[in-house]
Amino acid sequence: MIVVLKLSASNPIKLLLIAAVLLCSASGEELRKAPNFDAKPVDQLTVAGNACGPAALLASFRFGDDPWRKVADDVPGDTERERILSIIRKEGSRLSTHLDHHIRWSRKGVNVVDLCDMANEMTLGRYLPRIEYEIFILKNREDQSELLKRVHSRLSKSLAKGLPPMISLRRFANRSGKEQGKWEIVDGHFVTVIGISKKLPRGADSFAVTYLDPWGGKRCEGVIKIPQVAFLQPGNANPDPQISPSLEADFPEAGIGKSRLGKEDLTVITVAAGIGRW
């Protein structure tokens, strides 16, 4: 099968990513998709710019199989805005059990652990399996290829079990404009993964994903990959300064913290953690 693409120079990076996904399909590679793949994405902007966590969570349930989808259907509200606010006012307004004297959802949004707790509280009494979170940073004696396999395995497994996983993204910037300069966090964001290749080929250094960006409620294509440049301080698990402890999210459509970047800043988006059914 030959796929013919009519390309435009207006956004070549995006077109290359779309072409990569189409070529995977044309070559016969099996794609694992969310059970309710054609559902409507959730738009956090109906509420606020810091509502990505609750919006990504609602999308995860909505795009899942019937038992998970029922959780989304039962969220009170006649409009998208009302449903997101319902999650914020109920599960999001409770005190965090991980941060003393902190409400889970605030002006800064919500963290991975608290969002996972919110997800499990929304499923109470439904006899659904527990949702887990995992930090996607190099472990002891784990190399970058193994980290790539671990992340792919977790995302693929959650989709296979009927629950589209959420991933926590973080944008870092180097204000010096030099690779050896200091990298600092700019902003964070949650998205929901609804498509991924079923298998990761041996020796692969990346894999393509289809994801939902709650910022505007968009379907997007991107690539999660082993970074070519060390952009974070190495942790104890890997003291080599030339190796980054996180994977890179090559998501050209993601606007995370772009307004805070200078013209000369180097920037990268990392895959910090995931929430799903492992």
Helix and strand arrangement:
Layout: H1 12-26, E1 31-33, H2 52-62, H3 66-73, H4 80-90, H5 112-122, E2 132-135, H6 144-160, E3 166-174, E4 183-197, E5 206-213, E6 218-225, E7 247-250, E8 266-276
Antiparallel strand pairs: 1-4, 2-8, 3-4, 3-8, 4-5, 5-6, 6-7, 7-8
Helix pairs in contact: 2-3
Verbal overview:
40% of the residues are buried. 26% of the residues lie in helices and 22% in strands. Strand 4 and strand 5 (206-213) form a beta hairpin. The chain is an alpha+beta fold. Residues 1-28 have low confidence and may be disordered. The protein has helices spanning 12-26, 52-62, 66-73, 80-90, 112-122, 144-160; strands at residues 31-33, 132-135, 166-174, 183-197, 206-213, 218-225, 247-250, 266-276. It is built from six helices and eight strands; from the N terminus they run H-E-H-H-H-H-E-H-E-E-E-E-E-E. It has one domain (13-276).
